[in-house]
Known about the structure:
The complex is a heterotrimer of chains A (about 325), B (about 180) and C (about 200). By secondary structure, chain A is an all-alpha fold. Chain A folds into two domains: about 1-200, no CATH class; about 205-320, no CATH class. Chain A has 14 helices and four strands. With about 180 residues, chain B is an alpha+beta fold. Chain B has one domain (about 50-180). Chain B is elongated, with a radius of gyration of 23 Å. Chain B starts with a helix and ends in a 7-residue tail after the last helix. Chain C is mostly helical. Chain C has one domain. The two termini of chain C are about 30 Å apart. The interface of A and C includes residues 124, 127 and 128 of A.
Amino acid sequence: MELKNHFMKQKMMTKVLISLIPIYVFSVWLYGLRVLALLAFVLAVGLSAEYWVMRLIQGPKAKVSEAAIVTSALFTLTLPPTIPFWIAGVGILVALVLAKGAFGGFGRNIFNPALVGRAFIYISFPVQMTAAWAETYSSLPGGLVRYGIQGLTNATPMIALETTGSLTAVKDLFLGTISGSIGEGSALLILLAGAYLVYTKTASLTIMLSVLLSGLGFSTLFYLVGWSTVPVAFSILSGGFLFATVFMATDPISAPRDKTSQIIFGIIIGFSAMFIRTFALFTEGIMFAVLIGNSFGPLVERTVREMRATSKAKKEAVNG
Amino acid sequence: MDKSYTYTLIFMVLVSMILTSILAVSNAAFLPTINANAWKAEQEAILDAFGITVDNPEDFFEKNVKEKDFGVVKGFELTGDLEAYALPFEGAGLWGTIRGYLALDKDLDEILGITFTDQSETPGLGGRIEEPQFRDQFRQVVFKPLKYDSELQAITGATQTSNSVLRIINNFYDQVLPKLEVN
Amino acid sequence: MADLKVVARNQITKENQVLRQILGICSSLAVTNLMMNSLVMGLGVAFVTGLSSFTISLLNKLIPQRIRMLIQTFVIAFYVILVNLFLQAYMPDISKQLGPYVGLIITNCIIMGRAEAFAAQNPPLPALVDGFFSGIGYLLVLLVISFIREFLGFGTLFGIDLGLNFTRWTLMVMPPAAFFVIAILIWFTSARTIKAEQKERSS
Lengths: 320, 183, 203
């Protein structure tokens, strides 16, 4: 079995992987080399599962798409650093087999596969996903030369806000020297990655801006009206909001394709994220918000298309 | 060729009458048992809140507990060796409304116990608020605004449901307790 | 007159209402969190389907065509209410857990489906067998689903703690898990049936 024949290279996906390298290096520094071991495990499980499912669909000519590597890499970044390996395995299986394979494979998924996997294990294993966070290493070389985590802590910025009402400094949130999931910490690195993706035309700037601006808008609105007591900068820079904006909402398959739909899509996500964060008890509203956006995506696209068609027909009727 | 309209009408009326009468009779026959079951469950919840276990709960309840109107709520009063009140409460949990009884001593400054009659929290996690392990923490606790600490512990992995329970109790303390009419 | 044994067996396997006809899904999702709930629900559905098919078949010649579905609904509702009353009176704990889903048996497409597709054209005894075993087929599927859900979600089977110490899968006790499990189940059984049919056709 020639390995190369069974791998479908996708240039865009490679660019995403490149943009993730700095984030991974940073997270290893924060949490130790276990991060890489986790990634290796998720890749092994995920790619085997992807191959097995594609064999069912495509027969002996099955190819594993590079997108599966991206999904695995992104999925790993959304996990807490203390997550047991087997739970990560379950998550990536759900992501690639149920959220992608069962729908027909690459190009056919309705929902962002990594987020479906994450949602599944978030609800199935709430203790492991929400109660055990790790302290970060600081100073060089930090976690780059260690395997395990520094120590357990209970306070990510969002949890600290919820239980004690204390706000983490904006500088810490921006640079990322805080506890949280493996990849969500450094706003700086995420924004740089986002800029890279936009520059190389890999991800849609429209979606990113739409999610970001509507997130800002609704967060400000809820704060001014008094429904939320969280300052706007904090709510944008924490809870994986930026990570989802740059990497999850922009998944080309599950997001709409034309600019108008993308704007509406972004507004739905920004609104849902802030709404869920303010009124529901889940601290991680953004994950569900993107999935909600995914659900509405096709409907929005179709409506926009039909409205364009009717207005075009009307114009032609007037002119012709 | 279908049956005539007259036939259809008579048939429908006959079938309706027969089936409905059988159901009415069955309902009447079953109703006492059904109501007895519901009442029994309620009694057991109230006695549990008081912290009383007896061989014959219904007998004991008959003799020592009676309904009492407190103005802002309707609850129960326990007389005899122990004098106490059981007051119904309800409030928002994570997934739905949580209802139950809060048992307070005669002077309304000590919680004797708490039971939950209705909740839709996550089974195995938030649902564990019904377990004696969690509820017994509230026995003989001074009734004042509570929070979780080394003495009173939330359920691991069910932070939100646990917080909802405290929120409901503290809300009761703030809003309902001052308005209770004991006489 | 249809062979009763074949009728019964078909309802459990080849023409299983849940896995092949994809009927009765709603309650399958709701009550499969515990095996005991599935057992009671399944027996309830078997009882209702069997007896209503039987009654409808008896009345076949008498029912006017134009109100056929009305009468069928009436008969089914009749038996559902009886089952509901019985459960509330004699199994109140389980009745509380099953909640509105006992009353919702009337909306279960399986029962109306059997009434229309079989009871309307067959004699009473085969109708009874067909109806009852369609419920049993439903019951068996529910038991498989609830076995997975109760075991992974609670670590118990029929309420008996197996004493195994593993991390419980919390999602399994919620309805969404039933969506996943039932979809995977249909995937496997359909794949096998399709392969078997293809083999039959080519041989």
